[in-house]
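Protein modeling request. Please complete all fields; requests missing the sequence field cannot be processed.
Requester role: graduate student
Desired output: 3D structure, token encoding
Chains: 1
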Amino acid sequence: MSDTIAPIEPRYADAHLLVVDKPAGLLAVPGRGADKQDCLARRVQAQWPDARVVHRLDQATSGLMLFARGADLQRQLGRLFELRQVDKRYVAVVAGCVVDESGRIERPIAVDWPNRPLRRVDAEGGQAALTRWRMLARDLAGDTSRLELDPETGRTHQLRVHLQAIGHPILGDALYAPPAVRARSPRLLLHASELAFAHPQTGQALHLVSPPDF
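Delivered output (214 residues):
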């Protein structure tokens, strides 16, 4: 790890797993090309060489990421995700004042092949996708809403696609928001704020919280 990069201070760490905050703009795992090798996974592995990726966040999204300590724990934690036994919550600031106090967005999502890596709502060929949301605050003067998001499924770009589909794109979203909404923030205002699950070794109920900085 470069001397210019500060050591990571995990939200939680033990002999089996780690939970750390990913900054917005940093890749979760290495990409293609020499210029895309710096990422959270490599920074974590510089301090914990046995750390293994369990799930990912988009490069533009900030917040909590879970890492396993070793291959066996990676399998166990991956299984929790497959069984949807990990409760994930996000906070987003979206364009427009959402009328209701809570709701659900259930729209299938598919790869937008002519515009990869984008996704799109596709009623016929898409994979089932469900996002529950709850109002946290409205800014009438700024014409924005702060929402808590609970993705039941984990499709690529699900939260961004779903919010755009209901007419409330996330501020700063360079992929799915129209130019005027994109320009309202220098970063995507989407943050993985909570992770809750049963520790696969001890059975302890873990609930990690990371407040967004926006």
